[in-house]
Amino acid sequence: xxxxxxxxxxxxxxxxxxxxxxxxxxxxxxxxxxxxxxxxxxxxxxxxxxxxxxxxxxxxxxxxxxxxxxxxxxxxxxxxxxxxxxxxxxxxxxxxxxxxxxxxxxxxxxxxxxxxxxxxxxxxxxxxxxxxxxxxxxxxxxxxxxxxxxxxxxxxxxxxxxxxxxxxx
Length: 169
Hints:
The chain has helices spanning 5-22, 89-100, 131-157, 162-168, and strands at residues 27-30, 40-45, 54-60, 71-83, 107-111, 114-124. The protein is an alpha+beta fold. It has a single domain (5-168), classed as Yope Regulator, Chain: A. A six-stranded antiparallel beta sheet has the order 1-2-3-4-6-5. Helix 1 (5-22) packs across helix 3 (131-157) and helix 2 (89-100) crosses helix 3 (131-157).
């Protein structure tokens, strides 16, 4: 008997939760409810360069996976803990456009006056056991975030110019 994508996504998230626990990475499963439109796995990453807690949100993009295919799309998503004002957005868009050309996976973007880092990975529907690939991708995602986050925030805060950042990368 086939199960629907929403149920399958929750099972895969619960399985990932168990696999992250085996390597002592803290996670929390948030099941779909009235306030949350999809089940999500919050994964605790190492603290950032300023010692702030970092969370990576993992969720299956169900609206893009409804067709009869054998794939599901798993999104990795993190908001940087810095608020932009309207005058900063053009500079930040130029900055992330430059940085995104140097990224092996994922991209930075701006939404609702926040900078985010996002990557979407292809997973299969036929098996929940792609956990090691997902976990390895998670660590690569966090490493890339770590490489660029401080520079992005430095340009936003005015302690580094865009030209200086360009010479760095």
